[in-house]
Amino acid sequence: MIHYLTHRLIHSFLVLLVVSFASYGLIGLMPGDPIDLMFSANPEMTAADAERLRARYDLDRPILARYASWLAGALQGDFGYSRLYQQPVGDVLMPRLWATFQLLGISTLLALALAIPLGVWAAARHNRLTDYTINLVCFAGISVPPFWLALLLIAYIAVPVSWIPAGGMAESGENGLEHLRHMLLPVAALSLASIGSFTRFMRGAMLQSLGQDYMRTARAKGAHPLRQLFDHALQNALLPLITVIALSFGTLFSGALITETIFGWSGMGRMIYEAVMGNDFNLALVGLMVATAFTLAGSILADIAYAALDPRITLQDRGNGG
Amino acid sequence: MTHPTPLRRGQRIRGNFLRNRLAVLSLFILILLVLTALTGPHLLALLHLDGFETDLFNLKGPPGPGHPLGTDELGRDVLARLILGSQASLSVGLITALTAAILGSIIGICAGYFGGWLDSLLMRLTDGVIALPLLPLLIVLSALDFDKIGLGAFADGSGLMRLVMIISLVAWPTVARLVRAETLSLKQREFVVAARAQGATPFFIMRRHIFPNVQASIVIATTLSIGNIILLESVLSFLGLGIRPPTPSWGTMLTNAQDYIWDSPNLALWPGLAIFITVIAFNFLGDGLQDALDPKQHQQ
Question: Nearest-CA distance from A52 to chain B in Å?
Answer without folding.
Answer: 23
